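We emphasize that the prediction below concerns an isolated chain of 203 residues; any contacts that depend on oligomerization or on bound cofactors are therefore not represented. The input was used exactly as deposited, without trimming of termini.
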Amino acid sequence: MDYKEKIIEEAALMFRTYGIRAVTMDMLAQKMGISKRTIYENFADKNELLVSVLQWMAGKQKELTVRTFDESQNVIEAIFSLFDRMNEHFRNMSPAFRLDIVMHHNDILNNLKEKREYQYPPDQSEILKRGVKEGVFRKEIDVEMTNQCLFEVMRLSHEKDSLSTDYANKSELFRNFYINYLRGISTPKGLELINFYEKKYKR
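Result of the prediction step, given as a token string:
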């Protein structure tokens, strides 16, 4: 791992823990035991570092999603498992990080989204296709239209009350809405699996 990647990882941890504005380049250099000059040799300024951090975080989120679906026995288990892991991710994130993004760096985030370098909400089409293949989603569903509907559900949930720090309540609201939507496109087998994993993950 080179210095640039180490700086990105440490900055990501500090931003998530303390918020973006609270972390200075001096603090980052001191925490890593390197000179501030080393940071500026890799990043022109803090904004450039933040762009790299957000790209790195998006990559890690994608890796987590792929790994979760690879490790799961079926697509319903994967969905519940991913909800569980993402909830843990946000519980460990300081509210200051999200507030700083929305209030001071939203232009950076929107620019990354336009370039599709920070895709949120993610594409659901592969999940839907796998579910149809496994017999848990009805084969007659229009995958592209259903994907768009789920995309809008996730987008609106993500954007609504973006300054709110009540992640637990928002997460539970979104999870219930999403799962109930899946019930509407599920086969009897899918409904049975949803009921099973809903009880399992609530425990």
